[in-house]
Amino acid sequence: MQLAHGGGGRAMKQLIDLIIRPAFADPELDRCHDGAALAVDGPVAFTTDSYVVRPIIFPGGDIGSLAVNGTVNDLAMCGARPLYLSVGLILEEGLPIDTLRRVLASMHKAASAAGVRLVTGDTKVVDHGKADRIFVNTAGLGRIVAPTPIGPSSVRAGDAVILSGDIGRHGIAVMAAREGFGFETTIESDCAAVTNPVLALLEEGIAVHCLRDLTRGGLASAAVEIAETAGLAIVLDERAVPVRDDVAAACELLGFDPLHVANEGRFIAFVAPEDADRAVEVLRHHPVSAEALVAGWVEHGPSGRVSCRGALGVMRAIDMLSGEQLPRIC
Amino acid sequence: MQLAHGGGGRAMKQLIDLIIRPAFADPELDRCHDGAALAVDGPVAFTTDSYVVRPIIFPGGDIGSLAVNGTVNDLAMCGARPLYLSVGLILEEGLPIDTLRRVLASMHKAASAAGVRLVTGDTKVVDHGKADRIFVNTAGLGRIVAPTPIGPSSVRAGDAVILSGDIGRHGIAVMAAREGFGFETTIESDCAAVTNPVLALLEEGIAVHCLRDLTRGGLASAAVEIAETAGLAIVLDERAVPVRDDVAAACELLGFDPLHVANEGRFIAFVAPEDADRAVEVLRHHPVSAEALVAGWVEHGPSGRVSCRGALGVMRAIDMLSGEQLPRIC
Fold first, then answer.
1. Looking at the domain that runs over A9-144, which CATH code has it been given?
2. pLDDT of B71 above 80
3. Is the confidence at residue B182, as pLDDT, over 80?
4. For chain B, percent helix, then strand, then coil, each to nearest 5?
5. Chain B interface includes A31 (CB < 8 A)
6. Best of A324, A328, A329, A330 to disrupt the B interface by mutation (most B CBs within 10 Å)?
7. pLDDT at A323 (0 to 100)
8. pLDDT, position A32
9. Any idea which architecture B152-318 has in CATH?
10. Which DSSP string do the residues of A156-197 spell out, in sequence order?
11. Looking at residue A301, what is its pLDDT?
12. How far apart are CA A293 and CA A221, in angstroms?
């Protein structure tokens, strides 16, 4: 990759015509205009994330699949059916074209799996040493299908907190790939789209009040953020929260609390208490949430407090991390 | 700026709650959810651009105003009224908070001026030396108001090519700021939103076939790209193309062709020949396009050829640059 590939001239046109557009294969891109023209009907969800994960390839995924699934999941968390993604690439001079090809192919594959189209994009190239190989931004557009507003302000005391599966895999997988730890087993990222189970909850008429994917900061940060915004308290049952043995062992070795470790295919759903069992059942029909369970509940207060009942029945207070445990995991 | 500010924990929440959300002051951001929920009615335009300009502050603008105006203009080029922007920030560890504040304030000001809302965002922090101070991605959503499709495939032989004003200021302004050239006058970027004149063309019922803003690669690349996609030829009249004296002098000094130099508040419009004079008149009512004029026309072929009639009446062939003239101007 050379600076000229971002210069707006012949080299950039060749990069886009020969490498990028064919990789995404979408008729909107073939119109070669400044943006996509789309039919969208009704209320929409709009979201964005930049991805700066290091290394860009890790067990279970790469920055391409991450950039698609992460934004698809943010749309799902809005109670929306993901429809369209934009792709903004920032490439470092010297990046091998084959690496770019791999990332683009991975984006296309993840988008096809999630049922979204990559319809518009932009490519910039910066001098060697001014970026770290490749940064990807995706913005997403989805059609909101939830009948009532989904978000922290809809959470009510008494709501069940449903967790879609085991936690901590993504953060540990990235960390192990970055540092070259030789764990006995290869821990793979859980990176995946969670659209289908979320839409299933809504189609089944479950009273979903809030959804949140457990990315940076993990389950702990998600719970604290929602408790603070909603002005309510959340109690988690640590004994119910699944952590795979190899992830638990890695966390112990590294001094990490699994509650703070990032995931990319996990979410929590706040649902009316009477719908909790049915919600778990619906989620378990989908491979990505086959181990869903009730992991906690919401209480009136104190506002913003998250506590966790541990293995021995002792309650401990949960907070966001004040520092940085694991930078650049997404 | 520390890595912890991108870690998903308490430091990131403070950065967002105390610096970013107040700077943008939008109720959608105050919902603190994973995306914005928006009412959009009818066909929409969707676009994205990442901004990596160096230096991040230059005469006439900064990376913040650029990131808003650039994406607003891409929406306008789709014949759309810009409505909403997302903001993805990639910050380098060590970036002074005051620099971030300035960029955010500049984004807010530009968004207010352009009538768009900054409704959703994301912040990442990468280690010192792994980015260049600040990169910004904006994706934009607009309501298409053009009655017929706008794009290269709608261009017809005979169309007039209307240019909205003088060219070359943005590229030279950034170059001068970067290299510390002491030109006698300070050349300011033309960075501005062109929404109003574009919407005015559509409201007046002008038959607009294609619109293109003249960013990276300048007027030359825009014309070549459209000629190639449309399978038509374009003839430009160099004597009609306004270039300010100071910009022309700087180009001469640096060996640049003004046709290749970037702009951020200029566009070309392809309109039916019978509407050309009226289109120029409409554009001249708006300060940002007060010097609009007919700069060329479209011919049947040869497909993809752009030629330019120079000061002495001699025709020369125009192509995109094959290399890189001026990296990182947007």
1. 3.30.1330.10
2. yes
3. no
4. 35, 25, 35
5. yes
6. A324
7. 74
8. 80
9. Alpha-Beta Complex (3.90)
10. -TT-EEEE-S---HHHHHHHHHHHT---SSPPPP-----HHH
11. 86
12. 19
